[in-house]
Design brief:
Length: about 190
C-alpha cells in the first residue's frame, strides 16, 4: 500500500504546477500594461494564494491525508476481499469440475453395468427359449408316440373285429358237429380244472 504521507514530492510538484498556471495566465492577461497597479494586484493575488496554501496545509493537510489513507486502506481491504472471493470461486469451480468428472465416470460404469446386465438377460432369454423349445419338441414327440399307440390299438381293434367278422361268416360253414363237440369238451375240462 502506498502512503501519501511519504510522498511529499507529489504535493510540491502539484503546488509548482498550480503556481506556473496562475502566473502565466496573469501575465498574459496583463497585456503589457505599465503601472504599479497591475504588479500590486499580482503581488496581492500571490500573497492571498500563499495564505490560502498555508491555511490549507495547516488545517486541511492532516484530514485530507487521513481521508486519502483511509480510502487507500479501504480499497486495499476490498481488493483483498475480492481476491479471497475469487480464490473461493476458483476452488468451488475446481470442486465442481472434479464432481462432474466423477459423475461422468460413474455414468460410464453404470452404462457398462446395464450393457452387461442386458447381455446376461439376453443369454437367459435365449436359454429359456431353447429350454421351452426342447420341452415343446419332447411334448410333441410324446403326443405323436401316444397317437401312434392309439392308432395301432385302433388298427388292432379293427383288425380283430374284421377277423371275428370273417370268422363268424366262415366258421359255421367249416366247423362240423364233431368239431363243435370237441371244442365244448375242451372248454368244460378247462373249467373243471379251475
Amino acid at each position: 500500500m502506498i502512503s501519501i504521507k511519504n510522498n511529499k514530492g507529489y504535493f510540491y510538484i502539484s503546488f509548482a504546477f498550480l503556481f506556473i498556471l496562475l502566473t502565466g495566465s496573469t501575465a498574459l492577461a496583463s497585456g503589457g500594461s505599465e503601472g504599479w497597479r497591475g504588479t500590486y494586484d499580482l503581488a496581492m493575488k500571490w500573497i492571498n494564494f500563499g495564505i490560502l496554501v498555508v491555511l490549507f496545509i495547516k488545517f486541511a493537510k492532516t484530514p485530507l491525508m487521513n481521508f486519502l489513507n483511509t480510502q487507500s486502506e479501504s480499497l486495499a481491504r476490498e481488493v483483498k476481499i475480492l481476491e479471497e472471493a475469487k480464490k473461493k470461486s476458483q476452488d468451488k469451480s475446481q470442486e465442481i469440475a472434479g464432481q462432474l468428472t466423477d459423475r461422468e465416470s460413474r455414468i460410464d460404469s453404470i452404462k457398462e453395468k446395464i450393457v452387461q446386465q442386458g447381455e446376461k438377460k439376453k443369454e437367459k432369454l435365449v436359454e429359456e427359449a431353447q429350454e421351452q423349445s426342447r420341452y415343446m419338441l419332447e411334448d410333441a414327440r410324446q403326443r405323436m408316440a401316444s397317437q401312434v399307440i392309439q392308432a395301432k390299438r385302433k388298427l388292432q381293434s379293427e383288425l380283430v373285429d374284421e377277423v371275428i367278422s370273417l370268422a363268424m361268416k366262415r366258421l359255421p360253414r367249416e366247423i362240423t358237429e364233431a368239431d363243435n363237440n370237441a371244442l365244448l369238451g375242451q372248454y368244460f375240462s378247462a373249467v373243471e380244472k379251475e
